[in-house]
Design brief:
By secondary structure, the chain is of the alpha/beta class. Helices cover 48% and strands 15% of the residues. The chain has a single domain, classed as Rossmann fold (3-Layer(aba) Sandwich), CATH 3.40.50.720.
Length: 252
């Protein structure tokens, strides 16, 4: 199987469903060998089976990105299966919307542990592989809420703003190692996970605000991630690509 990511080994966190799965499938379709990291074995297995049925290469990895040792173990397992990891997508996130007074210590800790610390652990875990491979590409999943005010999403916005800042700083720090670091900021994108915390009415309100008149799809985000991971983006680093139908600039 040929493609823009032929010969690459890619780790996708939260890769078993939603946007993460779409990215894993798109990467495999472009020739990458993919490690699908998720909390539950059956979810990772389903994604790997779908990739295999389409002719791609993938392996299921189980772990919690909030635990540093789990992420390092996943990189080691993926390396044993396919070779050094040269592409990383930090996609995993846990979130609960609500007014600030409803945010408990447990909820805030989990959002930071998964969304921010998990991104840090991912970057740490792939550094050696990418350095030995003379470079690589990291794609972080951010959000327009990193730069826009978002009612009832203070902590989500804070975590994604931190990921955005991390992306820029990591790009500067990792650049001498020929490691590029960019972010994708998806706009309103229904997924099974998002549908658990966003109602149909709320989706319709969001759709009405999108200038091009539709909600996003996981495949929209996956295409952007493929581009940023590929040689087509070889001179792009420290950037954030908004995949949002224009909503960010329309309301900024």
């Amino acid at each position: 199987m040929g493609g823009r990511l032929q010969g690459r080994v890619a780790l996708v966190t939260g890769g078993g469903r939603g946007i993460g799965r779409a990215i894993a499938e798109a990467f495999a379709g472009e020739g990458a060998a993919v490690g699908v990291l998720d909390l539950k074995q059956e979810i990772a297995d389903e994604a790997v089976q779908a990739i295999g049925a389409a002719g791609g290469k993938a392996t299921a990895l189980v772990g919690n990105v909030a635990r540093r040792q789990d992420v390092f173990a996943a990189v080691a397992c993926l390396g044993e299966a396919f070779g050094p990891v040269t592409v990383l997508v930090n996609n995993a996130m846990w979130n609960r919307y609500g007014p600030i007074e409803t945010q408990t210590e447990e909820m805030i800790d989990r959002m930071i542990d998964v969304g921010l610390k998990g991104t840090v652990w991912g970057c740490q875990a792939v550094l050696d592989d990418m350095t030995r491979s003379d470079g690589g590409a990291i794609v972080n999943i951010a959000s327009p809420s990193a730069v826009l005010a978002m009612s009832n999403g203070i902590m989500y916005s804070a975590v994604k703003a931190a990921v955005t800042a991390l992306t820029r700083s990591a790009a500067a720090e990792f650049g001498p190692r020929r490691i590029r670091v960019n972010a994708v900021a998806p706009g309103p994108t229904p997924t099974a996970g998002a549908n658990r915390v966003v109602s149909e009415e709320a989706w319709e309100r969001r759709r009405a605000r999108v200038p091009i008149g539709r909600l996003g799809t996981p495949q929209d985000v996956a295409k952007a991630a493929v581009f940023l991971a590929s040689d087509e983006a070889s001179f792009i680093t420290g950037d954030m690509l908004f995949v949002d139908g224009g909503i960010t600039y329309a309301f900024s």
